[in-house]
Amino acid sequence: MSTQTTIEDGIDDAAATVGSVWPIHSFVTANPLSGFEDLPFGEAVTQAADLLGGRGYPSREAFRAALDDGRIDPDALESELADRGYEADPATLLERIDTSVESEPTDDGTDAERVDRVLSKWLSAFLDEGHAKWSMPDRDDGFYAAFREVAPHDAEVPDSGVVASLPADPIEAIEAALEPYPEGQWVPVFEEQLAALPGWTGLIKQRADDEGAWQSACPITLTEYLAVRLALLDGVGVDLEPSTGPDAPGTDSSDELAEAFLSAWEASYRSEVVERVAAESRERANSEPSGRPDAQLVFCIDTRSEVIRRHIEAAGAYETHGYAGFFGVPMEYRGYDAAAPVDACPPIVDAEHRISEVPTDDDTRERHDRWSSVREVAGEVVAKLKANPASAFGFVENAGSGYGLALAARTLVPGRVRDLLDTADAAVPDDHEFCEQIVQHQHTHADGLPVGLTREEKVEYAATAFELMGWTEFGRLVVFTGHASETANNPYDASLDCGACAGSPGGPNARVLATICADPDVKAALRERGFEIPEDTVFLAGEHNTTTDEIELYGDVPESHKADLDRLRADLAVARENATAERAESMGSDPAASVDETERRAADWAETRPEWGLAGNAGFVVGPRALTSDLDLDGRAFLHSYDWSTDPEGDALEAILAGPMVVTQWINAQYYFSTVDNAVYGSGSKVTHNPVGNVGVYQGNGGDLMTGLPLQSLMADADDPYHQPLRLSTVVHAPVERVTDALADNEAVTGLLDNDWLSLTVVDPTRDHRAFEYERDMEWQPVSDPSATEPAAAEPEAPSAPEPAPATADD
Amino acid sequence: MGFMIMQAGLGFFGAALTHLILHGFYKAYQFLSSGAQVERTTPDKKAGRSADGSAVAAVAATLATGLAGGAVFVLLTGKGTSVDSGLLLVLFVVFTTLHAARGAVGRSSLPATVRYGAVPLVFLPAIALYALVYRGVSAALTGVPVVTAPTELTALHGLVAVAFLGTYVAIEAGVHERSRRLYVALLNASQPSPGTLLTNAEEYDDGGAQ
Asked: Which residue stretches does the UniProt record annotate as biased composition, category Low complexity (chain A) (predicted)?
């Protein structure tokens, strides 16, 4: 009994170090070191390096390149180095940064490797999500039981030790395998064994935590996995003795130096953003508010929105806003044709409602169904033909010419193929053309969730959106714009979709919020709560295609707004051209034919980089858009609209710091670690990716699952990083006291800040727009005014402050 | 590969070469599009296929489609015009078309025209296209001593046909899934060479990135 609980508790403890890995169809950009977030950053990466062998800091070459490009400010570097007691020349110190990863060879390779091989074979069979024609027998009994059944037939499984006669209970197997080791070593043994195939164990952890459909059909736990693993290791006679903790402290100075360089790099980026925000804040305080905008478009806080927003604002009298891409509606969504409902909210939030799409226009639905069932049956017939050896050969011969033609067309003229498919697609009506979402409360449940939203919930979600964004004025058109990517032949397509929607497109969420806001009942309630929504405001939803920058607006508007909508559509087309030109250039293509080029990238099956995704992300600005609207943030900043003056209690700020800031930190940490060690925390080159079982990718023929982002999403080429690995710099525009209050009750967030997983700077509009940096334990450090110390620097905006223009304009 | 050898063994060297080319297209396409294979699925099996009301008509239509496939094949490739080993190849075509027609005919979700018409509409031209490639390959082989040398039918040919038929029925009925031993043996047989597995991500060398 007591041994059993010791083992169970020990596994729970050890499992904290395992970073969750989501199935690749629902890729979540999470921090691979999330289990270490309760430690200071420096310590966390050291421990993770010992356990997983991954680098924790950018390489010497990356720092050198950043120094040469001027991305690390020499003064900032000097002060960071001085803080740590280094006086020598940075170039000399740079040489002392160790680039090699001290990976201890794990035991005697061959035996442990054999166990890894057997395990990855059986895990890939067990964890397969519907890809295999013939799935592993007895899967519904759980991993341990299923393995126990097949083990006697598998010659690769040794026939000695614990594994030769597995007990019925996995805990007993673990107990037997651990017998020679003192209890004090058990947790380190578990940690080390769980870290051996981090891709698979991360997937098991996530699957067990998530309790999704596949987990209930074929259950697996880390305990069962460890039982099989330890039994196999016992069978081949591998010594489980855990290695003796961290290495000698000699390597620490290298890490300390790397931390100094990294901090200086971050400070250089941050001070640039903070200075500009502060300057805008100063200027804005003296300016009159602009008139009513023609339309307001709400985008996801995603860094990719920044580029298109800038170009939309330039195209007309439009206002754009940033809000979490799930639009604050924590829902599980089931599309009309979807095989399974998806969580359309970030993993830090639990879905609370089921929203389904139901057909309302029967004629259109019939047209849609006819086509989709033809396509479905065709797919199934092909699968049937391929699955039976008696028909497979005949099928291959008859279909071979067709495959040859498709092969040639997709390789030689991918753009034409996209046009052709588009035309074919256009013949089939889209879901949103004949379906409506069940937003109305239904008094029923689906999978344990209430269907639809009650009136109170609807009002709450709408009000929260406008409160968080600090809205006081509404245009004639208000568009909630979700986003999705478009990419061909890409196992990582979910990584390019909305991170706030758990790797799903954001369009459905946008539609829900637009439907809510359009409800006269909700409008009335919002007016009661003080939001002056004019009679002529129309709410719409749309989706931003982040690969091609096309924005599709759903639905229709009343006759009175037709002209507004037409103009908006035309302006969106202009904005698209300009945005794609900017983005095409960043991908090394000709900006002149940028729309065609981005469409080609979306459709080309040989394209490894359809878009840059969120690469480059480094900052998160929480404040009115006016603070950043004149700045080119180069697609590197998450932007959340917020107005401190409409949030006297600080509730909105608290919600932003607890939700969106944490999600952006996840995303940022994933990009950081995937860049600093693409092999261990990322997933290597896409060219050699090999998808397995609908859950992940291998590099090469098999082995462990790769976990993070692929090389092509982060690097311009093998030696030239595109993403600058920096920890997130959050900049909030609000009084310092209010931020302190907002943080006070949130230990998770202050913990991240205290442990340096991200930084927080406040530009305080009530204190002469000065900036304050969060130190630790709720202490703030005023940022020295840079214009005072270095007046010679290029700062054209400083003198152009308020004075001259308005004076002359008056008369 | 095995099928090619069999074609050669039956005396149809042109057919074997044609298979190499067409199978090459197919395999290349599969490899190159592997990234598109990932999809979100649910564990429950797809809804059972609803059988059509007029079972007799369905069976007749299925048979007719299969035979029509074989007829077009015989007519356009010339294989199987006389009673020799070429008949075995015809049998494969009949089988494939039959199997496809069987898959489509039982679908009540489709309108009748599609159910009965789609397979002939797609398969007969596809067989014609195959015949075209086959004729092309044969023409290119003129001058080679032996291109087509059908052999007389023997009991062995019958045995091969029966073996395939048996496999077909067994797989359709799912008999094979009852054996764990077979599963393990096949899974092990499909495992790649240990040297090509990456069990430790640290060993992944991406050419010096970072």
From this structure: 786-798
